[in-house]
Design goal:
Blueprint lengths: L8 H9 L4 E2 L2 H4 L3 H9 L4 E9 L2 E12 L3 E14 L2 E14 L4 E9 L5 E8 L3 E8 L5 E6 L4 E2 L4 H7 L8 E8 L4 E24 L4 E17 L9 E4 L4 E6 L2 E6 L1 H14 L8 H4 L2 E2 L8 E9 L13 E4 L2 E5 L19 H5 L16 H11 L5 H15 L1 E2 L8 H7 L1 E2 L1 H14 L4 E10 L2 E11 L3 E3 L13 E6 L2 H4 L10 E9 L9
Parallel strand pairs: 21-22
Antiparallel strand pairs: 1-10, 2-3, 2-16, 3-4, 4-5, 5-6, 6-7, 7-8, 8-9, 11-12, 12-13, 13-14, 14-15, 15-16, 17-24, 18-20, 18-27, 19-20, 23-24, 23-26, 24-25
Helix pairs in contact: 3-4, 8-11, 9-11, 10-11
Length: 527
């Protein structure tokens, strides 16, 4: 039930779909339009290949191909990874095709993402340099159309290395501010990019086959100068990697993996051979290998919890809220009191009521993959709660229905509320997406949160909803808890683009349990 989609599937959609547009600030580029034109003139066709590494083990393959024409530049990216999770290798494939003008402005893009769940397709175009039109469809259904107003040139994150390297020679200490389009809110978000370091890399130019080992090996090494470009952890399309003077990536960390430039045969043929024969053992299973062990066992029904968080930079995480407070390195979580569950509004209100004003807030409106205004969702939500006007009772009815109706399955896809409604199966992300859609459908403000949950002596990555009653209250339809117990450590508020920030915890976070007190109020769900 506890998924690592925030680590992999969610990170892929955030990094690739979330990278549909990078809005470059006019103050930076207007005085340097001629440099962009010069940079575009220096773009040459190229194809580069990467091994996708999890530690020292290759788990995937990626490529980037760039072609030029008289009036356009096209960039085609491919990414495939087999992630061992839940006892088997789970494949995710992403393809992105982008057409740029000769001034490096985006004209069109097309993205497809295939996982174990429903495939996701996104397409977009720029209309007259004033509007970005994005169409997103899941499982071949009717696409959702989003119109994003533009008043600046448009780039993609995959084009940033080209601009950094070719618009002017990279220099350590150089800073760029790039507003990034957040696909969850469809609003620009300023992201800072810095050139942090300069170094030399030795890269193989070609490969040779060794019949004895039946593997390809690199040959003809060449020395390449590269610059390290980094961005803050809060960037919706964050990039950290090494870029050469042609704007091609030498090495980068994405989605919790390292992409390392290699000759084609070394990157692809060796991975394909290994993928056919590798077994998924517990030490490879990402669900187990990235779990964080606790130094003491706890009851699953936890009323209060105090833990010490160490070995990571906690800046940027949503660790403070109504039910939890960070002081120094100590995080204290307390399950909500009964008074916190008393809502300050009623459902199905008259126009003057508080809930009428809440109806059109961000947390009651539909989002991509949270189709709260779809008639199938609204119809089901109303059938579940009937004419209940108390938001607390209505939310508990929805929580119970989702818990009882969705079969627990470890999945590896991008969750859509409608898809979950159709399949009636999934893990914490599916439970959360559907609950949030149902709650919003009847006017209960709801949002997605993610972090860690304690289970069987370890902390696992987990997602659950929060609803607004007297204040924000954590609930958990996966475990069937209302409210959720204090064993839920919230780190981020938001959907898949925010959940990618949990990557910072992988392999680094250490948790010491300082104190724990049980609670008799929990309604424990299945495990």
């Amino acid at each position: 039930m506890i998924s690592r989609r925030a680590m992999v599937g969610g990170a892929i959609i955030a990094a690739w779909l979330g990278g549909v547009a990078l809005l470059v600030r006019r103050e930076y580029f207007r005085p340097r339009e001629e440099r962009l034109a010069e940079a575009a003139a220096r773009v040459t066709p190229a194809a580069v290949y990467y091994g996708v590494m999890q530690g020292e083990r290759q788990v995937g393959f990626a490529s980037s191909q760039l072609d030029t024409a008289l009036s356009s530049i096209s960039v085609n990216d491919y990414f495939v990874v087999d992630v061992p999770a839940g006892g088997k290798a789970r494949r995710t494939t992403a393809r992105t095709s982008v057409t740029l003008s000769r001034a490096l402005r985006m004209k069109t893009f097309d993205l497809s993402l295939e996982t174990e769940g429903a495939p996701v397709h996104a397409a977009g175009r720029v209309d007259a340099d004033t509007s970005l039109v994005i169409e997103i469809a899941s499982d071949g259904g009717q696409p959702e159309v989003h119109h994003v107003p533009l008043d600046t040139p448009v780039l993609l994150p995959t084009i940033v290395p080209l601009v950094v390297a070719l618009a002017e020679r990279p220099k350590v200490g150089k800073h760029y501010v790039l507003p990034v389009l957040d696909p969850a809110s469809m609003t620009p978000k300023n992201v800072g990019f810095d050139v942090r370091a300069e170094s030399l890399f030795v890269l193989d130019d070609s490969s040779v086959y060794d019949p004895a080992t039946k593997r390809w090996h690199g040959a003809r090494p060449d020395t390449v100068r590269a610059w390290q470009v980094t961005t803050g952890a809060n960037g919706a399309a964050a990039f950290t990697g090494w870029v050469d003077e042609q704007g091609r990536i030498v090495e980068t960390s994405q989605l919790g993996f390292v992409l390392r430039r290699l000759p084609y045969e070394v990157a692809f043929e060796n991975w394909r051979t290994d993928a056919e024969r590798q077994q998924v053992t517990e030490d490879r299973d990402i669900l187990e290998s990235t779990a964080i062990a606790a130094d003491k066992r706890m009851d699953h029904a936890v009323g209060t919890l105090a833990v010490r968080l160490s070995n990571v930079n906690l800046e940027g995480f949503d660790l403070n809220g109504p039910r939890q407070r960070l002081s120094g390195d100590t995080l204290r979580i307390a399950r909500e009191s009964d008074s916190a569950l008393v809502a300050r509004y009623r459902l199905f209100p008259r126009r003057s009521d508080t809930a009428s004003r809440l109806r059109d807030t961000a947390y009651t409106l539909p989002e991509t993959l949270i189709q709260s205004r779809d008639r199938r969702v609204t119809g089901l939500a109303i059938r579940i709660i009937k004419r209940e006007r108390d938001p607390r009772i209505a939310a508990e009815l929805l929580n119970t229905w989702v818990h009882d109706s969705i079969r627990p399955r470890v999945t590896f896809g991008i969750p859509s509320a409608l898809e979950v409604l159709e399949s009636r199966r999934g893990d914490c992300n599916e439970h959360t997406q559907l609950f949030v859609a149902l709650a919003r459908a009847v006017g209960i403000p709801a949002r997605v949160t993610a972090g860690l949950a304690y289970l069987d002596g370890k902390f696992y990555y987990h997602a659950w909803p929060e609803i607004l009653l007297n204040d924000w209250v954590a609930v958990d339809p996966t475990f069937g808890q209302f409210p959720a117990d204090a064993a839920h450590l919230r780190f981020v508020v938001g959907g898949l683009t925010r959940q990618t920030e949990l990557l910072r915890l992988m392999g680094n976070l250490k948790i010491d349990v300082l104190s724990v007190n049980g609670s008799s109020r929990a309604r424990d769900g299945r495990r």
